[in-house]
Amino acid sequence: MKPAVVARRPLDDRGDTSVQMAIVFPFIILLTIAVVQVSLWYYARNVALTAAREGVAAARVYESGPGAGAERARAVLGRIAGNTLLGPSVSTGGSTAERIRVQVTGRAPSLLPGVPGLTITQSASGPVERWTTGG
After folding, report:
1. Nearest residue to 89 (alpha-carbon basis) of 110, 75, 109, 103
2. What's the pLDDT tens digit per position in 3-37?
């Protein structure tokens, strides 16, 4: 019966793992930052869309108008946006007597200093409630 052979690492491989981590770790950090940045963009986009939808819901009501929709969208932004949507603006351009349109524009925050965030534009539209006669 042969004795078991024990494999030994050569002494010149010391620190090999540290070098590998030094090469791989920056890519892991970049991937993490990219995932967080995309999450911030997606959340800011949802905040803008929610404000636009709420504005349309308020402006669609019978004898309401685009001003009520813009006011409601701004109120929603003031309540839920916080620092997730930077420089938000609300517009009701493109609205007609039969259809209301609310557009919310802003920027998503950026994790990189000196780099502006991505611009976000979300809009919602719907028919205006009005009294009509049958026939």
Report:
1. 103
2. 666 666 556 666 778 888 888 999 999 999 999 99
